[in-house]
Amino acid sequence: MILPRPSGASRTNRSGPNQTNRIGHSGSNRSGHKRINGIVILSEAPRISLPPHSPSSRPEAANLPPQWRDPRISLLLLLVLLLPVPATAQKSGSTSPVTGQTIYTLTQQFLNVAPKRFNGSPGHLAAENFIKDHFKPEAAKGNFETDQFTANTPAGPQTLRNYIVRFPGKKDGIIVLASHYETNFPLKDINFVGANDGACTTALLIQLGAYFRAHPPTGYSIWLVFDDGEESVSGTWSDADSLYGTRHLAAKWYADGTLAHVKAFLLADMIGDKDLNIDKDDQSTPWLEDLLAVAAKNTGHSGNIFKYPAQGLGDDHIPFKKRGVPVLDLIDIDYGPHTASTPDGYHHTAQDTIDKISPKSLQIAADLFLETIRLINQRP
User: Fold this and answer.
1) 5 assigned to some structural domain
2) How many domains does the structure of the chain reveal?
3) 110 falls within a domain
């Protein structure tokens, strides 16, 4: 589904017992006290001067029950009052309006309905119906579009369909969130279901759509794009045999003027990996990568991005990049262990199944998308 990595660009598998916990961070404030997960920790115990204990000399003390007159109880109460209290809460996955568990459950439902979704198959049609069924309210408002076209492929002409869901905002401009939904055509004869490669990102977009239905955008409009024909049909990736849906859509939007209103194109691809680390894609727009880094910091997920570079990726953001649109590919191409039988890990194998992805990773992805959208809207 992506251009094979050039020689020298492969990376060692990151899973294993030495992997560190990437969630959360710590730092110091100006007072010298540490702040951990929003809790201020005093660097040293406060120095407190207490008057000599003489309850008989204080009328209010004389009225206290005997057990409250004990100086040890008084000191304990004082220490309780001095316990640190949480600072302003930092955004985290636990408070996200879109949950990783919900995305994971929807991924399973999608796979149950349409496990094999290669072009022209019954599963491909079932996948399309699954997507349409989740956006009936938008269809009723005229905000759901079927973009059907015919692609000339090495296997002959194929009828493909992109689906566009619009959530109108208050500002003039569009943020596009995209994912492909089909599976690899050359793998149609094996049990390839693409849990990480197409299924979980489709579920992610559906859940983000549910969020924007309940919370209409107050900034730029949000358009969801479920694109078709991302994979090579022949099995040999080339500019002519790949990215059919986004090449068609970028050209169409360029011709009708839509592209001039797109402020950012954000792509979700292979972001369910249990060992999630979003690659630093050299094809993505630098200022959007900078915003993603800020989004990761704000949500406590800095440890899940940019550990590794990705060079020369062919993915659905490329047709839009070529036409001048700012693009960001959120992808983790290092998926599963690299062995003699699976040199590319689980990618494009029958092992790309639901048990290889996790709600935790899907939560991270949802957090990053929502926070990146918020940050884009804050730009002048």
Assistant:
1) no
2) 2
3) yes
List beta partners, residue 40: 35
For residues 101 and 200, state if they share a domain: yes
15 belongs to a structural domain: no
Residue 60 has pLDDT above 50, yes or no: no
Q: Are residues 68 and 201 in the same domain?
A: no
112 and 169 share one domain: yes
Q: What is the DSSP letter of 335?
A: -
Q: Has residue 9 been placed in a domain?
A: no
Q: Which residues touch 170 (CB under 8 Å, ≥6 apart)?
A: 217, 218, 219
CA–CA distance, 121 with 116 (Å, rounded to integer): 8
pLDDT digits (tens, 9 = 90+) for 347-358: 999 999 999 999
Distance from C-alpha of 194 to C-alpha of 191, rounded to nearest angstrom: 9
Cα(229)–Cα(161) distance, integer angstroms: 8
pLDDT tens figures, 101-150: 999 999 999 999 999 999 999 999 999 999 999 999 999 999 999 999 99
| E strand or H helix that includes residue 148 | strand 144-153
Do 326 and 185 lie in one domain? The reply is: yes
119 and 61 in a common domain: no
Query: Helix, strand or coil for residue 146?
Result: strand
What is the per-residue pLDDT for 69?
52
Which among 300, 184, 307 is positioned nearest to 244, based on CA atoms? 184
Write out the residue range of the structural domain in which residue 68 sits: 27-81
> Among residues 329, 110, 96, 303, which one has the least CA distance to residue 208?
96
* Same domain for 59 and 98: no
Residue 95: pLDDT band (50, 70, 90) is low
Query: Band of the pLDDT at 5, cuts 50, 70, 90?
Result: very low
> Nearest to residue 175, comparing CAs of 320, 311, 363, 290?
320
Pair (39, 133) in one structural domain = no
Check which CATH number belongs to the domain holding 308 and give it: 3.40.630.10
Our separate counts of H helices and E strands in the chain read: 10, 11
Question: Do 236 and 264 belong to one domain?
Answer: yes
The 10s digit of each residue's pLDDT in 187-201 is 999 999 999 999 999
CA distance 342 to 292: 31
Residue keyed to tokens 């990437």: 22
Q: Give me the pLDDT at residue 96, please.
A: 77
Tell the residue number behind the tokens 């002959």, with chain if given.
156
Q: In what side-by-side order are the strands of the sheet with 144-153?
A: 144-153, 156-167, 220-227, 171-180, 262-269, 327-331
